[in-house]
Each structure stands twice: as structure tokens, then as C-alpha cells.
Design a protein that fits this description.
The complex is a heterodimer of chains A (113) and B (110). Chain A has 113 residues and is mostly beta strands. Chain A contains no helices and eleven strands. In chain A, strands 2, 4, 5, 6, 9, 10 and 11 form a seven-stranded mixed β-sheet that branches. With 110 residues, chain B is an all-beta fold. In chain B, the strands form two sheets. In chain B, strands 2, 4, 5, 9, 10 and 11 form a six-stranded mixed β-sheet that branches. A five-stranded antiparallel β-sheet of chain B has the order 1-3-8-7-6, with no helix packed on it. Classes of the chains: A mainly beta (113), B mainly beta (110).
């Protein structure tokens, strides 16, 4: 089966610009996650969807980050405006259900200058 | 918030040796998962162990869980150079939200 797809793989922007990331989960997976991973740290959950509903977004900086999962399939994560501290790898993952192993995409490496 | 913390932070061993890394967490959990991350394959799921299980095996991997001590260990037997990676534990907080630890960086020397 095809894995989790993410694009773009790399992105360099200046601070205060906006950026969007796209994720297509494994077919049939109901749960979709967005994580932020800063170099040397573990992934930090930003938002979790179950189908097209939000399960948890308690660590999403809502003043600048937004995410949606229209039709319960693919998802986009947006940052507007970006700050230097947003430089990180943004990982998308999906799972069959809420308590299941997660399958991760290759990530998008964001550099904010 | 950091739920799980891996120990040691870094580990260097010779090929063929066993590697043990530990994860401690703070609150009650439903289950705990171990993941591996290397530059070639990204983050990959290794094992999920439920709170009512004490030990699980998968190939050369053995995971134990001690809920009374709020800790888990991952043992890799007969390590190979390809096992070089960062290993993370991920725990829920009794909910559906998983929190990853800081990871153990394992280096296996040929």
C-alpha cells in the first residue's frame, strides 16, 4: 500500500511570510496527525483529526497555525505569519483508528530566515 | 509537555552487542509505543504494548512494560549497523493523544 505522502519536502521562507504543507494519508486511515519536530527533540503533536473532526489541537499555536482536513482525507497545515522558531520538520502521520500504530510521511523541512 | 523520557540520551555499541534503552513516563497510560527514526526511512513504528501487557517480542526486539514503575524498556539483540537510529517512546495520557519522548540516539559500530 502507498505510504503517507507529504509536499513539499523542503521550504525556505522569510519570517512573516506564510507557508502551507499538504498531507495525503494512507487510504482508509481515519486518524491524521500533524507533528512538529525541532532538531534534537521528539515529535510534538500539533493537531489530531478523526475523519474530518478535530480530536486535539491543544498545542497548536492558533494565532498563526491553522489546519484542515476537508472530506476526511487529505489535510493542509498553514503557518501565517511564520517566525524564526517555526524552523522545524513538519511530520504528517495517519493511523487506522485512534489507538493504533502511526505511519509517518517523510516530512517537510521548513527553514525560516 | 513531555510525557516520556528516554534514557540514555545516547548509546554507542559494537555490532553484535545488545542495546537497551529505557523510557519513563509520568501519568497512567493505555498503551506505549516505540518508534525508530533514521535519515533513510524516517519515523517507523516498532512495537505497541498495552497497559495490561508486560512483555512483547518482535524479531530481535523485546519490549517490557512496568506500569507500577511507569517505565518501559526496549532491548535490541545482536545489533547491526542498520540499527543506528534514534529511538522514541510515545505514550498516551490515558487519552488518544500520544506524546513522544526526547529519544535515545543509538550508534552501532561495525
Amino acid at each position: 500500500e502507498a505510504g503517507v505522502a507529504q509536499s513539499p519536502r523542503y521550504k525556505i521562507i522569510e519570517k512573516r511570510q506564510s507557508v502551507a504543507f499538504w498531507c495525503n494519508p494512507i487510504s482508509g486511515h481515519a486518524t491524521l496527525y500533524w507533528y512538529q519536530q525541532i532538531l534534537g527533540q521528539g515529535p510534538k503533536l500539533l493537531i489530531q483529526f478523526q475523519n474530518n473532526g478535530v480530536v486535539d489541537d491543544s498545542q497548536l499555536p492558533k494565532d498563526r497555525f491553522s489546519a484542515e482536513r476537508l472530506k476526511g482525507v487529505d489535510s493542509t497545515l498553514k503557518i501565517q505569519p511564520a517566525k524564526l522558531e517555526d524552523s522545524a520538520v513538519y511530520l504528517c502521520a495517519s493511523s487506522r483508528a485512534l489507538v493504533h500504530e502511526q505511519y509517518f510521511g517523510p516530512g517537510t523541512r521548513l527553514t525560516v530566515t | 509537555s513531555q510525557q516520556g523520557e528516554e534514557d540514555p540520551q545516547a548509546l554507542s555499541i559494537q555490532e553484535g552487542e545488545n542495546a537497551t534503552m529505557n523510557c519513563s513516563y509520568k501519568t497512567s497510560i493505555n498503551n506505549l509505543q516505540w518508534y525508530r527514526q533514521n535519515s533513510g526511512r524516517g519515523l517507523v513504528h516498532l512495537i505497541l504494548i498495552r497497559s495490561n501487557e508486560r512483555e512483547k517480542h518482535s524479531g530481535r526486539l523485546r519490549v517490557t512494560l512496568d506500569t507500577s514503575k511507569k517505565s518501559s524498556s526496549l532491548l535490541i539483540t545482536a545489533s547491526r549497523a542498520a540499527d543506528t537510529a534514534s529511538y522514541f517512546c510515545a505514550t498516551d495520557e490515558g487519552t488518544y493523544k500520544y506524546i513522544f519522548g526526547t529519544g535515545t540516539r543509538l550508534k552501532v559500530l561495525a
